[in-house]
Every structure is written in structure tokens, then in C-alpha cells.
């Protein structure tokens, strides 16, 4: 089967014998005008600085959101985010990948705001084929509102790794071998939104949004996708900056990465579905017995 040199079929990606030549249109720094669409919020979401910065805002009337123009099937995707500062209690900033349909796949970061000086909760989840219920929650080891920090998703056929500033915080392994569905067939878009969730977000809905602090604003910059872009039933892998570097497709955590992951899980994880005995009194999901 002949493949055009600039394309790589999805199957070949798995066998890792694809080589890539000048795959994607050369583009320099990340540009939100090029890669994203503002999808809701009636002017509350803004792309600024010639595409270098995106802001979402929330007021009493509405939140706002954006999505990627591209769909991706695997990727190493980084975004620098600065969360709503000050009294952000009741607000939720969601940043996630999702496919469509009733048996969708989804990889979630959600940031639950808090009163000034109280910690944000970083909530994570993984859905495969429409089924989630795999929450892990963390505090962060820094204040995520004073500066931009890098939130990354490495999604390859072996696992999904969530990282913060390069430190892995969660790994969801491909355990199809023991019957756990793994997201690998449905292309996903990147989505983000800022909305009011004071019915549940801060201490389970106890703390309400203080609208005298509105509008609430979260900021985004330096998006980078080393990813396989899905288009017309085919996937093209590469990145704008380094088109031939697809090492991420088989990337594993090294020993130091595993150590960091353990450190975060030991010191910063505040909820793990795999240790919620009450919730899973009938038995834990199979992936929980693997680590
Ligand atoms: C907010 O702060 C309180 C008090 O420190 C803490 O219990 C809670 O987990 C924090 N986060 C959220 C989202 O409620």
C-alpha cells in the first residue's frame, strides 16, 4: 500500500515504522487564532496579543469557552494556564479532551476554585466508551493563580499521563488485556471552559460564588501539541516545531518520573476512586487492583 510521504496511516503509527517529512504547515509560536475557536460566552472569551493569549471570563450572566479546531488521535498536549485569582470559590475551569457521541472518551483536568488563600482542587477523570467514575483529586504544591503553569496530557497507545509543570501526577494505563476499555479509536478535541458550579464545587457546594468579585478570569498561552491530527479518516503525526519527533508515541515514565508520580500521589492526592471503599463496596474496578 503506497502512502503519500507526508501522511501516515493510523495502523502504521502503531508499528512505529513511519517516518515523517514536513508534515504539518510550519507554524512558529502557538497561535490561538490558528488552533482554536471560541465557542460560547458572548464576548467573554477573548483572543489577545495577536493570538498569543486567550482569556475566559465568567460573570453572573454567563461563563465562556473554546475548543480546538483540530481533532487528535493521541498526542502530547501542553497548555500554560493561569487560574482565576483571589476569591474564586464556586468557579470551575475545565480543560479536557473529548470525543463525541454516547460512548465518548474523555480526559479531564478540572480546577475547582476556592476562597482567597485556600487551595484549589485539581480534579482529574478518564472516560472510556462513555464510562468515567475514575476521579482522582489533588492539591497543588504552588499557587496556580499567581503565574502560568504547564498542564500536560500525554495520550499514547500505552497510557494517559497527566502532568503539571513536567511532574507526572496521574497515570492511566492501557489495561485492555484485563478488559478495561482504553481511549484509542475516537479522535478528541481540546475543550476549555470557565463556569459557575457553586452548587457543588467548593466544599461540596457549601461556599457560594461571590459575584462582587466578577468577572472571574482564567488565562491561557503557549499551547503546544505534539500530536496526531485526525482528518478525513486519517491521522498525521508530528508537531509544528519538530515534525520528525514522535518519540512521545511510545514514551514511558523513566525511573525519576515514577518517583515524582509517587511523591505527588503520596503528598498531594486528596481523593482516589481506587481507595473509596464505600463507593465500591461491591468491588473495585479492575484497573484498581493493578497498582
Ligand atoms: C478549599 O479550602 C478548604 C479549606 O482549606 C478545603 O477543605 C477544600 O478542599 C478546598 N478546595 C475546594 C475546591 O473546596
**How many DSSP helices?**
3
- Radius of gyration over C-alpha positions, nearest whole angstrom: 19 Å
User: Can you tell me the CATH architecture?
Assistant: Sandwich
CATH topology grouping: Jelly Rolls
Instruction: Give the distance, in angstroms, between the N- and C-terminal Cα atoms.
Output: 41 Å
Order of SSEs: HHEEEEEEEEEEEEEEEHE
Low-confidence stretches: 1-27
Number of beta strands:
16
Broad shape: globular
What is the total number of structural domains?
Answer: 1
* Biggest sheet statistics: 8 strands, antiparallel
On the 0 to 100 scale, the average pLDDT is 90
Give the class-level CATH name: Mainly Beta
Briefly note the structural class of the backbone. mainly beta
Main β-sheet, spatial strand arrangement: 1-4-13-6-7-8-9-16
Helix content: under 10%
Report on the structure:
The structure is a single chain. The protein is mainly beta and 291 residues long. The chain has one domain: Jelly Rolls, CATH 2.60.120.200. It has helices spanning 10-15, 32-35, 255-267, and strands spanning 36-40, 46-48, 53-58, 64-68, 71-82, 91-98, 106-112, 121-127, 136-138, 149-155, 159-164, 167-173, 189-196, 216-231, 234-238, 269-272. Mean pLDDT is 90; it is low at 1-27. 2-acetamido-2-deoxy-beta-D-glucopyranose binds next to loops. Belongs to the glycosyl hydrolase 16 family.
